[in-house]
Design a protein that fits this description.
mainly alpha; 18 helices
């Protein structure tokens, strides 16, 4: 496989898929007004896509052990493309929500299979650059999505946003021609019931949070218990129990969850702050956020090389520090002008991109090849579930503070995101300490 052609093309496809989240971020106020729905209900337009995207990502990752990448990519991109065509004609909340859920069912193919390809077919000495390219594509989509969404919403209406994701139908035949032919083990089986339990776990927990329902919380707890029982009985479970017994991997999962909580929470809040406090249009909101994404994309080639040269942990610490500083800067500066948002995101977007690339590369490094598919898939599930929870909780907190002064409501949410960044940083220190202890014990056992 010529990764110098495949990975840029794959990054473009992932760019479209991820941008499908942030395009709707800036259009959320317009959708809420046009469809006459509440803010917390409007957050489901983003949350439903994010959680479906997360679930489909881990499913495609696990299916890559059973089916060829070509077959999975065909199913995923056809599902995404056709549901996008349906979304062009959605004019009610339920139709819009259905289109977004169907989109998410196909979108996970790009994220899940991209990291699988990098881990399987790209040598470790170049893998950091490839994963950094994928992460930068996501970061650029997170940032450019608002400006593209703002332009389309202003001149075509929010239904026009679905036209962008139809482009995946164009790149599908090209990728099918370039992807390597695979020989898969025939006796490998896919745990259908485990996948269903995973979906029940994520959906019921998200409903328990968004609906603030004791009933859904009870259902979620029961679904987790039944899933744990199923994992003990299954010989080839969907969530590999070996992963859960790896403490280093568990810490990286927590870090990934926190990072997406910060990122999607921030991307949900920034358009609302700019619209409600600075009274900017959708297009101006996009123009304010876009420079950070452009800078992140520009730095991609350097970040990937630096990660390969200096290691993952150094960039994880630098990135975490910058993300925490931006959160506290937004807490104090959002009421001044749009400038703090502009400058803050210029730091936030590259830091997030580099941190995610380092995290994914570190995860692929510590996992054996036999667990890369399930391990990377679960990592992305946890990451995007964190993003979904973040958007939903942000919507709930803003609805809870609707009688307060707006700036105070936004500050409270940014304060919570700052606390999340500190929790992630503490977990990173713990991971680093454990890694040093493991290395020391290994050297002693070898008599060095």
């Amino acid at each position: 496989m010529n990764d110098r052609i495949v990975m840029p093309l794959w990054t473009f496809g992932l760019f479209i898929v991820v941008m499908n989240t942030t395009m709707f971020n800036v259009s959320t106020p317009s959708i809420i007004g046009d469809l006459h729905i509440s803010a917390d209900l409007g957050s489901w337009i983003i949350s439903s896509y994010s959680i479906g995207y997360a679930l489909s990502t881990v499913i495609y990752s696990r299916l890559s052990d059973v089916y060829s990448l070509r077959r999975l990519l065909t199913v995923g991109l056809l599902t995404l493309g056709l549901s996008s065509v349906f979304g062009l004609f959605a004019h009610s909340f339920h139709a819009l929500l259905a289109a977004r859920i169907c989109q998410s069912a196909g979108a996970g193919a790009m994220a899940g299979l991209g990291l699988i390809i990098a881990a399987r077919y790209i040598p470790i000495e170049r893998r950091g650059s490839a994963i950094a390219m994928i992460s930068a594509g996501s970061a650029m989509a997170f940032g450019l999505g608002p400006i593209v969404g703002g332009l389309i919403s202003e001149y075509m209406g929010w239904n026009g946003l679905f036209a962008i994701t139809c482009l995946v139908l164009v790149i599908l035949p090209v990728l099918l021609r370039l992807l390597p032919k695979e020989v898969l083990t025939k006796d490998t089986q896919f745990d259908v019931f485990g996948a269903m339990w995973t979906i029940c776990n994520a959906a019921s927990l998200l409903l328990a949070v968004t609906q603030r329902s004791i009933g859904w919380l009870a259902i979620s707890i029961l679904s987790f218990l039944f899933h744990a029982w199923h994992m003990k009985r299954s010989k080839n479970s969907f969530i590999n129990p070996v992963l859960m017994r790896n403490p280093a991997y568990g810490k990286l999962l927590v870090i990934g969850f926190c990072l997406l909580v910060m990122n999607l929470g921030n991307l949900f809040l920034m358009p609302l702050v700019l619209a409600n406090l600075s009274h900017q249009s959708a297009m101006m909101i996009g123009l304010t956020i876009a420079p950070g994404a452009i800078l992140s994309a520009f730095l991609t080639r350097y970040v990937g090389r630096w990660i390969d040269r200096y290691g993952n942990l150094r960039f994880l610490f630098i990135g975490h520090s910058l993300l925490a500083l931006v959160m506290i800067a937004f807490y104090y500066g959002i009421n001044a002008s749009p400038i703090p948002i502009l400058v803050g995101y210029l730091c936030f977007s590259p830091a997030f991109s580099a941190t995610m690339a380092s995290l994914n590369n570190e995860t692929s490094r510590i996992l054996p090849k036999t667990l890369i598919g399930s391990g990377m898939g679960l990592m992305q599930l946890i990451q995007f579930f964190g993003g979904s929870i973040s958007v939903a909780v942000c919507g709930i907190l803003l609805a809870f503070h609707k009688k307060d002064i707006l700036v105070h409501a936004y500050q409270d949410v940014y304060g919570l995101l700052f606390v999340i960044s500190l929790c992630s940083l503490v977990m990173l220190f713990w991971y680093n300490y454990q890694a040093k202890e493991d290395t020391s014990r290994s050297l002693k056992s070898e008599g060095v």
